[in-house]
Design goal:
seven-stranded parallel beta sheet, 369 residues, Rossmann fold, alpha/beta, globular
Length: 369
């Protein structure tokens, strides 16, 4: 199959540091190539891929001081895609709804994965106006605010099996927070949980410009030398050690998380996740198997002790079974084929029934890592 993957340009594919969407695009692209498909990647020129690369800009725009406005670069990239559209059987967009006006006549052989939150008031009119586009959600919960969209499938993210290392016998003597410093990610909760649980906390997180004041006024004053260690952004090669050495990953979100890639990264390292029961969390965390879902700080503190009883081998086995890149690519390929066979049948009007992660996880836990 001839497939175009169209990525955002804010980060390279994969990102050098923080970045979820572009990282997933990389995993999917490389797995599709591995499975023998002819894949082209539209992304920044500093991306690394085994697919054919069509650069949309010289470097990741977040790292380019001369690119304060990202929109022109995306418009030019989409024009590239438009000119080459006949080269591909399927166009897979990861650029939100930006391409909708330009590709309306090609919507029947396009797939659009929405990676962000959907509970925003301006999205409903967009979906109501562009009903031709088959849309993919990354969790069933993500699609709930806009049931009128043409949802074609839910495809959970997946990681390459050899991406993160596994050291089950290493000492796990701290709690981890990985991702982004922002009010909705609630690093303040993570600090409180760690303090009450009596374990050090290591924070590996990016601070965007929009969150700099929040970081300086609300989070930095909570740091306690010798107890809270702020590491800053880390790259892919550092995650195995960072996550693999933790007692648990804290995911104390205060927003409807569309997926939460860091959760499956931690579980793949054998590290359980303690997460607030919000957004996609019930679809990702198998309660009592790969971690614990909680409603408040007190429950999270209690879960820290319970997390220490979970076996890293079992946590990893479940993550590899449910969240592998091979499974992710297989899900997308099934959708691509359905589009090519019967474009008019690509949409599923009703939400797919939610999976039972605890049941599937328990079965997977019995398999060897």
């Amino acid at each position: 199959m001839r497939i175009a993957q169209i990525a955002p340009l804010a980060e390279s594919v994969p990102p050098k540091f923080y970045g979820g969407t572009e990282r997933v695009v990389s995993y999917l692209t490389e797995e599709l190539v591995r499975q023998g498909h002819q894949v082209s990647l539209f992304a920044s020129a500093d991306s690394e891929t085994s697919a054919e690369l069509f650069p949309g800009c010289a470097q990741a725009l977040r790292l380019d001081p001369d690119a304060p406005d990202h929109l022109p670069y995306h418009i030019l990239m989409l024009e590239q895609v438009r000119r080459r559209a006949d080269m591909f059987d399927v166009l897979h967009f990861h650029t939100d709804y930006l391409h909708f006006p330009m590709f309306r006549d090609l919507a029947g052989r396009s797939v659009t994965t929405m990676h962000g939150r959907q509970d925003l008031p301006y999205l409903a009119p967009i979906y109501a106006s562009f009903t031709e586009y088959p849309i993919v959600s990354i969790s069933d919960h993500q699609r709930r605010p806009v049931p009128l969209a043409r949802w074609a499938a839910t495809v959970h993210h997946g990681l390459p099996h050899d991406l993160l290392g596994f050291a089950p016998h290493r000492r796990r003597d701290y709690l981890a927070f990985l991702g982004r410093i922002s009010p909705e990610k609630r690093p303040d909760r993570a600090i409180e949980i760690a303090r009450r649980a009596g374990l050090p906390l290591k924070i590996a997180a990016k601070v965007d410009r929009v969150d700099r004041d929040y970081f300086e006024t609300c989070i930095r004053p909570l740091f306690d030398p010798g107890f809270v260690e702020f590491i800053g952004e880390i790259g892919e090669h550092e995650k195995s050690d960072f996550l693999g050495g933790a007692t648990a990953l804290l995911f104390p979100i205060d927003w409807p998380e569309p997926f939460g890639l860091v959760m499956i990264e931690a579980m793949t390292c054998g590290t359980p996740v303690i997460a607030w029961r919000r957004g996609s969390v019930p679809e990702i965390v198998a309660h009592g198997v790969t971690g614990f879902m909680v409603e408040n700080v007190a429950e999270a503190v209690e879960a820290v002790g319970r997390a220490q009883l979970l076996q890293p081998e079992a946590v990893r086995a479940v993550a590899r079974e449910r969240f592998g890149a091979e499974r992710m690519a297989r899900d997308y390929l099934a959708l691509y084929q359905r589009l090519l066979d019967r474009p008019e049948a690509a949409a599923v009007p009703a939400m797919l029934p939610a999976a039972n992660p605890a049941g599937a996880a328990a079965a997977a836990a019995r398999k060897p890592a």
